[in-house]
Design brief:
Largest interface: A-B, 80 and 80 residues
Helix content of chain A: 55-70%
Structural class of chain A: alpha/beta
Strand order of the largest sheet of chain A: 4-3-6-7-8-9
Oligomer: homodimer
Shape of chain A: elongated
Strand content of chain A: 5-15%
Chain lengths: ~575, ~575
């Protein structure tokens, strides 16, 4: 592959495009389009944007991803969590419904796209790794709850605001008196219908003789059916006059490409949120893409994914859209429906473009409650209580980071939640590695193996202390090692040799090197020699760049067994249970 | 030892106090007092404080440390770096020479003391570990340069300000015209004399038949001689009238203990600097204390050191002093002069108290240039170019953190330098561990050892991929592992088994567990089984808390050799050079 084909994977797969692939891609695109129409409208509403912005964000961004993305089957477009993050961050600098809000949302996509492309070109994809799984999982669960709570107002047909759970709850309670009964009927009905479709329809269809995969695909059309039915109901019963909030007139026609108005202050205000949106969108996307690619032994190039998603967001920013990323549910449907290449994304974009041109007049009578119900059903599937339980069982430290993220997101805000979670997970990691597991070891009788004296009956010598450190040595844990050795030496008056067993030490940084020098120096003052054993190749290479190997009072032994053989006089060995 | 004796080590060593110990401690105290008088005046000047504040900071704080500190020989009091940090942080909220400046400096000691005691009681000493050696070493070198540059104005007898190198340089150049020749003569003379004493006097005395240790101790009296001589010169030649800036009248008498005026806004403004001063003072102190204790196989308890230094700073805050910590040079002198217990500190405090009562009238005619010269000689010995060179040779990442600290300290400010250095060293550490060393391994012919296929001629199988990861698995590196395995699998069409060799994996966090599940799942989709080998005990215990060991498609082997024996049909083995 040439350099250009690396940057634009379409040049690679496009050359081998065949007729059967075309058919498969078109079928998948049809199914995804059906799913995407209601979703794009709903997520635009969730982001506080007019319905057409959701459609616009589902046209050019898909084409851009098809050109630059490295996943064959990722379905890009508006998604729930990113829509929520858009609503909260844009909501801080402009009021919903204003022109400034619209401009800020589009600008957010542009900034996020530029950041993603920049990170991709600079190979900075690893930055996303600092979002640990418990933090992401906690964040998505909390976002799901927050989104579902936020949509309740649409189900009830009332006006209410709020970006945190307490704000949303007090908004709902304060405005409950204004509840609109026809709206609630539609909302509750759609909710019940969608849950029926989700939980019961597929087994039902299968029991009628349909194959599982087509049955699965049909159930994904549930939201479209709900949309069509409620539009019909509104039109026939004139429910708009009865106070049911509707989507209203959507401008017909495609977005005119162009730069949004660029205000430097706005860019500064949006930079932080754009970074978080970029990272979270990227992490989610790559994880879906990897999972799907693995099923066909294909490969995802994470840095290229940054460029693909970045291009999609720039396209959103240039065509009056808002931030997009790879959606989990739609990508799985796209894959299951047989999509083979990113061309399916281009065909989906054509489908949405046609819908924007032809169907928009029909959507004016769509109740907002219908969209709210589809959002609630979609996001409640993101809430993963089982993941919380598993993390609790596995590791209290990880659970603490997860809980902080969830509580931060629900009670402080979306951005605060992520930032708190990331900071806490980093601190906990550093804390853990700053107190590494260390074991005084002795020889297991009859073997050359050395084990922890506290767990095994082993042979030790009062003149030789063998200490194994189960962690790389770096600045955060090196003083702990100094303290530990000082304490061990202070309680062993007969000591003549200390051997540091380095089998688990993968790196020694400059601080640790100085500490080892200091330990060597202090032991020397106390008349004790200091030895190393089982030092790994790369660590040894590094040590050779310093004068440590000349300065050390003892030796570097290839194995701990060799060290003990040379250092102990057999008469002094004692057995310890 | 009882719990109380743990908190107050004086209860332990005080019970065994003997007459010979008393003699040794008093001799050491006499020598340290001689050294401390000029230093306390000089460092107070460096901190922008009246001379008597330096004396006050050398009385009660020493007594407090003697009661609570765990080091037998650490000499606590004003030191150069902490004085500089005091000047910059207090200088931001009050003007030098005002009452508010004095109050803020005393309050800074009180806050820092409270923080240290708090950290000690909560066993938070490990926080100091996040200051890596290159950051501290870079910071001290840069502080030394900054202090020396800042004292130039006193040598020249001009007024100039500035907290960064460019500010100081432009201040000096702009005021050079006001230079006072008698002052410069005194300053240059003292500088030359002190360098002669430091570099030549000791060998000279030794060549005259004096033993090295007393010769060393005598050279430490150089500054006192310089002080006495210049006072005499000023008095005889009436140099005060010639425009030589003098220390001036020092209030006679001891400080009246009491709380400084406590202003909540000031506490908030000083909290950040107080934390940095506490941590840096603590790190320096503990490192000196550990080094000295090791020579006599004594033990330092880091968390108790926090309490000892905290008590000293609280004492400084209650007796009109300013932040103190353990000084390197004075502690070494104290140790070499034969101090055996912290009682030497109490005797030093008595010495300084007597000097404050009796000698202060004599100090009025002391030229500031003399003090500046003693500071310059002291701090230039802190500049450690050799350390910079060694870090450069050993590790570019550590060098980057060091260089950032030095440049930040010199050109942005003292606090910024430390913060930049710590942040960069954490990021670089995380970056390094986020891209762990991994090796595809094969069996060394005729052995049960497995080595890197790229470095050794080993036996591998096209159906089995053995991958060794040289790092604990945690959130920052787990996606890197996923990507690496995905890439390795994509290029091996015949692959049936992947074995992860876990001998260097000391921990697996919840993120890594999920990644392992994801890898297992993806490999399963591709028809490949996933195995682990040589999993450590604590890691295995942890994995048993999850369902991973039930879900894994492959097995957990005790050794890599066992894994290969079971998984390969010998006919498919290929030898690779």
């Amino acid at each position: 592959m040439t350099r250009l084909a690396n940057l634009m994977p379409i040049l690679d797969w496009g050359r081998h495009y065949r007729r059967t692939t075309l058919t498969n891609d078109i079928i998948a695109a049809l199914i995804v389009t059906t799913m995407l129409i209601p979703q794009s409208l709903a997520y635009a509403m969730l982001a506080g944007l007019p319905a057409e912005v959701g459609l616009y964000a589902s046209i050019l961004p898909l084409v851009a991803y098809a050109i630059f993305g490295s996943s064959r089957t990722l379905a890009v477009g508006p998604v729930a969590v990113v829509s929520l993050m858009t609503a909260t961050s844009v909501g801080e600098i402009a009021a919903q419904g204003t022109e400034a809000y619209l401009v800020a949302a589009t600008l957010l996509a542009l900034i996020s796209g530029a950041m993603l492309v920049g990170m991709g070109l600079m190979k900075l994809g690893f930055v996303a790794n600092f979002l640990s799984h418990p933090v992401i999982s906690g964040f998505i669960t909390a976002s799901g709850l927050l989104i579902a709570a936020g949509q309740m107002k649409h189900l009830l047909g009332i006006q209410a605001g709020g970006h945190t759970l307490p704000e949303i709850a007090s908004g709902l309670i304060g405005n409950l008196h204004a509840m609109n009964l026809p709206t609630l009927t539609i909302g509750a009905g759609v909710l019940a219908f969608l849950y029926f479709v989700r939980l019961k329809l597929r087994p039902l269809l299968v029991s009628f003789g349909l194959k599982p995969r087509p049955a699965e695909v049909i159930t994904k059309a549930g939201p479209v059916l709900a949309v069509a039915t409620t539009i019909l109901a509104v039109t026939l019963l004139d429910l708009g006059a009865a106070g049911v909030p509707l989507v209203g007139a959507i401008p017909r026609g495609l977005p005119v490409p162009g730069l949004p108005a660029i205000d430097p202050d706005m860019i500064v205000a949006l930079a932080g949120p754009a970074l978080l949106i970029s990272l979270i969108g990227f992490v989610e996307s790559v994880s879906v893409a990897q999972t799907l690619a693995a099923k066909r032994r294909q490969r995802i190039v994470p840095d290229q994914e940054l460029i693909g998603l970045g291009a999609a967001n720039i396209a959103a920013g240039l065509s009056a859209g808002y931030p997009v990323t790879g959606g989990f549910a739609r990508s799985v449907v796209n894959f299951d429906a047989g999509a083979e290449t990113p061309a399916a994304g281009i065909f989906t974009a054509i489908g949405i473009a046609l819908a924007t041109l032809l169907l928009t007049p029909l959507l004016a009578n769509l109740p907002q409650a219908t969209l709210a119900a589809t959002i609630i059903v979609a996001v409640l599937s993101l809430v993963n209580i089982e993941a919380i339980r598993r993390v609790w069982a596995y590791s209290r430290a990880d659970f603490a980071a997860m809980a902080a993220t969830i509580l931060g997101t629900l009670f402080v805000g979306v951005e605060a939640g992520v930032v708190i979670g990331v900071a806490l997970s980093l601190l906990l990691h550093l804390y853990r590695t700053s107190r590494p597991h260390m074991a005084v070891v002795g020889r297991v009788p009859g073997t050359e193996h050395f084990r922890n004296v506290e767990r095994h009956a082993v042979i030790t010598s009062p003149e030789v202390l063998s200490l194994r450190v189960d962690e790389s040595l770096y600045f955060a844990n090196t003083r702990y090692l100094e303290d530990r050795i000082a304490a061990l030496v202070a309680e062993r008056p007969e000591l003549k040799h200390v051997v540091l067993l380095c089998s688990a030490i993968n790196a020694i940084d400059a601080s640790a090197l100085e500490s080892l020098e200091e330990i060597n120096h202090r032991l020397k003052d106390a008349g004790i020699s200091f030895h190393l054993s089982e030092v790994k190749g790369p660590v040894m290479d590094r040590l050779k760049r310093s004068s440590y190997l000349e300065d050390i009072t003892g030796q570097v032994f290839l194995s701990q067994h060799e060290a003990m053989c040379q250092l102990t006089s057999s008469s002094r060995l004692t057995s310890r249970a």
